[in-house]
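Q: For a teaching session next week I want to show students how multiple molecules come together into a single three-dimensional assembly. I've collected the sequence lines for a complex. Could you give me the predicted structure tokens for the whole thing so I can convert them for display?
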Amino acid sequence: MTIKLGVPSKGRLMEKTFDWFADRGVTLARTGSEREYAGAVTGIDGIELVLLSAGEIPRELAAGRIHLGVTGSDLVREKLGLWEEKVGELAPMGFGHADLIIAVPKAWVDVTTLDDLDAVAAAFRRRHGFRLRIATKYHRLIRDYLRDNGVADYQLVDSQGATEGTVKNETAEAIADITSTGETLRANHLKVLSGGPVHRSQATLFKSRMAEWSKDDRRILTDLKDRLGLED
Amino acid sequence: MPDTLAKAQVRAEAARLLALFEGQGAQVVETPILQPAETLLDLYGEDIRARAYVTSDPMMGEAMLRPDFTVPVVQMHMAEGAEPARYTYAGEVFRKQEDDPHRAPEYMQVGYEVFDRANPAASDAEVFSVFSDILAPQGLRAATGDLGILLAAVRGLTTTERRRNALLRHLWRPRRFRALLDRFSGRAQNPEGRKALAAGDPFEGMDAPVIGLRSRDEIEERIAALREDMTTPPIPESEVALLNDLLSMRETMTNVCENLRDLAVDMPSIMGAVERFSARCKALEARGVDVENLDFEGSFGRTTLEYYDGFVFGFYAASRPDLPPVATGGRYDALTRVLGRGSEIPAVGGVIRPELLLAAGGAA
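A: Of course. Below is the structure for the complete assembly, covering every listed component.
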């Protein structure tokens, strides 16, 4: 008779999420010792708090093991195929802003747009004998974006961290990553391609379309949406 | 799929088709299900990761579950085959269906491939008519196309080699092709940033070092190319119009033959391809194919994963527009050129999906 709300288990994302709910009269709190991942919800009945890594929340929503979840809009799009069929966006939460961008060396004065990147990829492959490497951990988002824009002759190489350093280290020619201020890019002599980011991400409250929603569950959701001031 | 058929039934149908192809003199071959990923990635690019299942093996590295038979069959033929050769095979292929979960990610294909350089028109006609005869009882709609004509038309455009190559490279990506054609013909603006490269030293004031594998040489080479491109006159309007006529052509094969001859008067570059087209027409007729009622579409075959560069065809269940094509095929000389590292074997072939054939038969 409860619905499960998954929120990030640590860090600024957790704190900001707690603040966002608190501002709307719903108190989320961790309980037990500091190391125990348990939580409680007060101010509204029927909601159970589940603390999870932000990266796992999309999967749990898609599996229907949690009814609601807070995570980055980028993570949902990256980790779930046909995400719109599995989850619905209830509310963008106004924090955790980050843009997924594609960046190339600043010294590539001949490259401004994706169109240039495509042409450079073709020339690079001819010269070096392999496809131009783009380091990223956002494989699905970047591949879909490049396919939609008709970019060819590239390859994605996996980079789970320090992605901005891969160009200088010659393990990639370009990168695709999340950036909020662009400082790390500048420090690593990279520039962002024009034409807007691949995705503008922010923390978002999602609803699972895969979870079982009993009549009672739906009533709880309606209550919660009322409390949060969300449209039906 | 709503009417998923029992696997045994599909296997029996596959065996029947395999026997029919064998009856045409084809040798039955098998290929491994696990294919080295590298070859397929180099051929199809990163996009194939969205379509094929990638797995990894501690010894062979990245591997893919066979997304088609063409590549391994070509490789096998090039390594050990004698010419001419006809092959047939039956087995599962695996394709992720991220955009359409209702389509099967694993299905049977039965194929027929002809490696014969003696008479390409006759080989094209042979493959098509073998398929057409086998599929006749289901009353499928056939459509054909010819990428060879498109390639010839692009190669004949009055412009620089660089622009022609850019268009050829994107022939299989229609949107990108269109964007480039618009720009090269002066209908669309150059992308931003180009003007700044036109004059002076683009490196002036650059405070960042050249990092990574792409050298300053390569950057300067491209700047020179872009500067040359900025002074290149647009592709003449009349040539773009002819190319558009070609791309939007939808006619029966007999009518196309006449239309193409008219087009070739203004577009001499396609003459050779048009002659190959009419030779194929005659060869099809000689095999009893009703070319007067066979559809031809100018853009057919431009959006497939395959590497077709000549004659292309597909068979569709008219009563079941929800189904993918029951059979597809075409000529893929370019693929043998890439896989053969220079040596080339003219090749044409196609596949039937037995499950779809059964479904189409049931609906007919």
